[in-house]
């Protein structure tokens, strides 16, 4: 693969009614890197991810996945989404289906993978994520951390080019956060390209190759984790991180 960005946004603007949620956002995500989106609630992090996956239509600008402009109206949006894995803070598992069936549904129904191949891939992922014995369990028999790991396995099952994580620990009890973040660390070690919106500042500092601080829909500051957390240039970034430190979250 080339070194061209996996995801590229140029001057992306998104509004909801009179509210401007993203203001001329530029973003590049290099292959095999982790980009962390940080900022207060309502800063535009989740909307940015939803635009990247075409779950929200942008009002201006353009988005590329590899060398394809995916916001071109002629593009097959379903085909684009098949190349992007998304994990939300709500697990969104089908409660009437086993863990195995939840993971194999998209590969079989959307990607045309045989049941045998899909199940082999799912069982491999479950073993890797420490859930090998849960294949036949139903979601309501799992802890929140286990359900989120199943959701990650489901996203990985389609072998995505890009993984998007939207506050994947927000709905978890504190003692379950670590087990999910360990999975993300392992994916980074494997070279998966990821963009994650997170309130876990210590985690972002440790794993992100690029950190973007969003404020009122603007990428106000970006840089390496060392730069943004260690020597933020913008006064607004400094205030945000100071509050994080005072709250004991960094």
Automatic annotation (TrEMBL):
Signal peptide range in chain numbering: none
Keyword Ubl conjugation set for record: no
Occurrences of domain ABC transporter (ranges): 7-241
Membrane topology note: Peripheral membrane protein
PROSITE patterns: ABC_TRANSPORTER_1, ABC_TRANSPORTER_2
One protein family per Pfam: ABC_tran
Keyword Transport attributed: yes
Recorded GO MF terms: ATP binding
Keyword annotations of the record: Amino-acid transport, ATP-binding, Cell membrane, Membrane, Nucleotide-binding, Transport
Localisation: Cell membrane
Family label: Belongs to the ABC transporter superfamily.
Protein name: Amino acid ABC transporter ATP-binding protein
Protein's organism: Streptomyces coacervatus
């Amino acid at each position: 693969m080339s070194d061209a960005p996996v995801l590229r946004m140029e001057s992306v603007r998104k509004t909801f009614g009179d509210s401007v949620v993203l203001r001329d956002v530029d973003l590049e995500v290099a292959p095999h890197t982790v980009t962390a989106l940080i900022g207060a609630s309502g800063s535009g992090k989740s909307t940015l991810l939803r635009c990247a996956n075409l779950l929200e239509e942008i009002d201006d600008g353009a988005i590329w996945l590899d060398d394809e402009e995916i916001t071109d109206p002629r593009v097959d949006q379903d085909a684009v989404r098949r190349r992007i894995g998304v994990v939300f803070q709500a697990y969104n598992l089908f409660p009437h289906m086993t863990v195995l069936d939840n993971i194999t549904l998209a590969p079989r129904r959307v990607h045309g993978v045989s049941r045998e191949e899909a199940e082999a891939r799912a069982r491999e992922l479950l073993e890797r994520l420490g859930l090998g014995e849960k294949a036949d369990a139903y979601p309501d028999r799992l802890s929140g951390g286990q359900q989120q790991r199943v959701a990650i396995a489901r996203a990985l099952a389609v072998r995505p080019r890009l993984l998007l994580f939207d506050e994947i620990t927000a709905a978890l009890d504190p003692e379950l956060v670590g087990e999910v973040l360990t999975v993300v660390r392992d994916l980074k070690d494997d070279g998966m390209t990821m963009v994650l919106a997170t309130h876990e500042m210590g985690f972002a500092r440790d794993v992100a190759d690029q950190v973007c601080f969003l404020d009122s829909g603007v990428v106000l500051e970006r840089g390496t984790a060392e730069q943004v957390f260690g020597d933020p240039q913008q006064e607004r970034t400094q205030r945000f991180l100071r509050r994080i430190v005072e709250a004991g979250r960094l």
